[in-house]
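Build the 3D complex.
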Amino acid sequence: MVIERELLLPSFRRFRRLRRTETLRALVRETRLEPTDFIYPLFVTHGKGLREPIGSMPGQFRLSPDQLMAEAHELRSLGVRAVLLFGLPAAKDEVGSEAYADDGIVQQAITAFKDAAPDIAVFTDVCLCEYTSHGHCGVVHGGEVDNDASLELLARTAVSHARAGADVVAPSDMMDGRVAAIRAALDAEGLATTPILAYAAKFASAFYGPFREAVDSAPQFGDRRGYQMDPANGREALAELMEDALEGADMLMVKPALPYLDLLAAAREMADRPLAAYQVSGEYAMLKAAAANGWLDERAAALEALTSIKRAGADLIITYYAKEAARWAG
Ligand code: PBG
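Done.
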């Protein structure tokens, strides 16, 4: 009887044997999330005692520098070891002056944060769009973002962040040659030990919408498609990653994350640098909105998205879910 059945069945592999219990599943799990995988973005604003909720990003706030100590303690207790700072300036102008001011909001926040938590790495977003009156990531000349004229200001911004104590500077502007310009400026200023995380393949994405509300950085004319990448271009993304590595980037980033997992996987194959992925504001907002409506199990969906990003090849994930995910995964 038994022999007869075996003869009838084709030979096949029983994958389900190792899926039978949670213990077995855990033993053969290939990808695990850990709190040290995450970099938590923070929005810092001038003032005291401020903790303003960001409407389109539930659970995220604009914080005044005095709030950073509590934030640092919470992150440490969760095992999250890195933050990425964004600033809201007191005033905007044509050339984004506060981006590279010694007493700018990010410079103040770096000092406050490092005082509170020297053991947590402070990454800073190096860009002009939060600081310029026109909302573009570089200087505007004759209605166009002037690449080469922007490089000097971006380099000044990176130097001033590094001087204030930033552990890593992360240019997100997408001007050509900015990694080389920033590396040269840091080295010339005695900051040769400050690493650069390049937003190397950064796409002109609709998924940045909530972020632009958070920091009021939407361009006042036109859009960012003249410098950020066309979402349709994969080969070009790999060229951008390669170029930033050649210019001296210590770490590379693909941004956004979930819609660009193919490029993350390709970058992992190609690049020898640590690779970061940015799960951006729109990716976060989608999950939050669906969860608020009861349409998704938030915890399961968020952990699934983050696991996919890591499985595709990210060593580090910049995510607004850092705290919750550290709690869930830890
Ligand atoms: C600055 C910058 C942006 C983001 C990170 N750095 C906005 C943009 O390029 O328009 C987006 C982050 C997010 O959506 O979470 N240039």
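The longest helix spans residues 147-164.
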